[in-house]
Design a protein that fits this description.
heterodimer, A: 350 residues, B: 171 residues, alpha+beta, 4-stranded antiparallel sheet, 8 strands, 47% helix, globular
Chain lengths: 350, 171
């Protein structure tokens, strides 16, 4: 009895070590090779996203290959619509933003000066902070940085535009064969446990990706529409930015409001512009929390909010922007792996 | 060499042998499935090889699926309270076991061990759920067939019990 218990503990420790080692290896790979791995991860996420739609089309009698081609064709049409009808407007907004940037900073500097002058008699330490100089330095930094970053961004993006659709196509078409091939490597003793674990993890990741992308799409759409109705300039940009920020739990929705509030402050008074903008962001979050998240993501990540916050901080510090995005699914994978392997090993016999 | 083996294992689809589809068709319960449904079923199976004396699963372990014997033979047994083996059956090519695990989450009710080098075709719940999602018609047909096996086995058990009761009362 004691010997059996010792064997079980040893087996469990070995499996936990293996799972942790594998996750650390994946983490290290993401950290060091994220530039090369980025298109692969992105394709994997896209394949998870489109997998249910491919299945639905297969159910309607399409072959898998044709189902994928049909989805790609619809996506191509949507992208064409975006490029033809929305992109010119976005470029105009971007040009306007770039042209108005000095005037916007000047307005902000003036506002800060007035604010400092009003507060200085009561709080003398405020006068000692040279906020205007800091803002001027920031303006210079943004300009030089933008001029350097934009060409590099498009240079990096170009090969992705070719590789991502190709990789996504093959992952959607041959994903099942690759999965079966990997499972063939698992020893008989751990086969059923691994198959079960893989099923739970895949379902969890798939639901999370679909949920968070749909949530961000809704939040971004509501924000863009709301800001447009409030006559806030660059509404489309702010909406897209807020949708992307929403991909990072807790921090994203809060930090994502900053650009909108600053831009609104430069376009009008606190009451006429800033308050409506804050209300639009609040409405988008309200709809997300009350309606979208319970509907789409309630069953997905059973993680305590504190665990999510710690995971996002650690992920962001270790892996940068990718870390912020993968922190929650990675933590959830770790939790499910440990729980399922513990359950599996506990019931194994020798 | 090792890398080549790994590469072959992961990226080459399982050999489309007549074996699996032929074997599935030879089992009465799957016999009247259409060609396409047999193909769907074949896609979600896993071929596993076992050495002589290797345990397929132990009594009391959680199970997620059933096995069909493609080559070789297995022994099914349970352990008595004094740790003695009580053999229930010996199964050979074309026979199957563990199908209850496809329908419920209870632990395995017996231990199965291979009697010689054996190849098994595994059909597991996660893959079956995935098939139901992709092709509900084929999925439901397979589930229905499995339910028919269980119903037949339950009927057989009832008949055995009735026979044993009659025998016991006649003593």
């Amino acid at each position: 009895m004691e010997a059996e218990k010792a064997i079980k503990v040893k087996l469990w420790l070995r499996t936990v070590g293996l799972v942790l080692g594998l996750l650390l290896l994946i983490g290290w790979l993401i950290g060091t090779l994220h530039i090369i791995l980025a298109p692969f991860i992105f394709s994997l996420l896209l394949s998870y996203l489109f997998h249910p739609t491919v299945n639905r089309l297969e159910r309607r009698g399409f072959s898998r290959g044709w189902a994928i081609i049909l989805i790609f064709a619809v996506l191509f049409l949507i992208l064409s619509f975006f490029v033809l009808f929305l992109l010119p407007g976005m470029i105009r907004e971007l040009q306007l933003l770039y042209t108005n940037f000095p005037a916007f900073i000047f307005n902000l500097e003036e506002a800060i000066k007035t604010w400092q002058a009003q507060l200085a008699p009561n709080y003398p330490f405020i006068a000692r902070i040279d906020l205007v100089a800091k803002l001027t330095a920031f303006r210079q930094e943004v300009r030089t940085h933008l001029l350097q970053v934009i060409p590099v961004f498009f240079e990096t993006l170009a090969p992705y535009l070719f590789f991502i659709p190709l990789l996504t196509f093959f992952l959607l078409r041959d994903g099942e064969n690759i999965r079966k091939g990997l499972l063939r490597l698992v020893p008989n003793r751990y086969f059923e446990m691994t198959l079960n674990l893989q099923y739970h993890l895949t379902r969890q990741i798939r639901n999370y990706i679909r949920g968070i992308l749909l949530d961000s799409l809704c939040v971004g759409g509501i924000t863009a529409a709301g800001l447009y109705l409030m006559d806030v300039r660059y509404a489309l940009f702010l909406g897209i930015g807020y949708g992307l920020a929403n991909l990072v739990p807790y921090f994203g929705p809060i930090l994502g409001t900053i650009p909108g509030i600053i831009l609104a402050a430069s376009q009008g008074s606190f009451l006429t512009k800033v308050v409506p903008v804050i209300l639009v962001y609040a409405l988008a979050q309200f709809i997300s929390i009350v309606w979208i998240i319970p509907l789409l993501m309630a069953r997905m990540m059973k993680l305590h909010p504190l665990v999510v916050i710690v995971a996002v901080i650690v992920g962001g510090n270790l892996f940068g922007p990718i870390g912020y995005l993968i922190a929650v699914p990675a933590t959830s994978i770790l939790q499910t792996s440990l729980r399922e392997s513990y359950r599996g090993i506990r019931s194994l016999r020798h | 060499m090792a890398r080549d083996c790994l590469w072959r294992n992961i990226f080459r689809p399982e050999k489309k042998s007549e074996g699996i589809s032929g074997l599935l068709r030879s089992i009465p319960v799957f016999a009247d499935l259409k060609e396409r449904e047999i193909w769907e079923l074949e896609q979600i199976t896993h071929r596993r090889s076992y050495k002589e004396g290797e345990v397929v699963f132990h009594e009391g372990e959680p199970g997620v699926g059933m096995y069909i014997i493609e080559e070789g033979s297995v022994k099914v047994y349970i352990s008595s309270s004094d740790c003695q083996e009580i053999e229930l059956a010996q199964l050979a090519r074309g026979e199957f076991f563990g199908e209850v695990a496809l329908l419920e989450d209870e632990p395995r009710s017996a231990t199965v061990v291979s009697l010689e080098p054996t190849t098994l075709i595994g059909l597991f719940k996660p893959d079956l759920l995935d098939l139901i999602d992709r092709n509900p018609e084929a999925g439901v047909k397979i589930i229905l067939k499995l339910s028919q096996i269980l119903a037949a086995r339950l009927r057989h058990t009832h008949e055995e019990m009735r026979r044993m009761r009659t025998e016991a009362s006649s003593y």
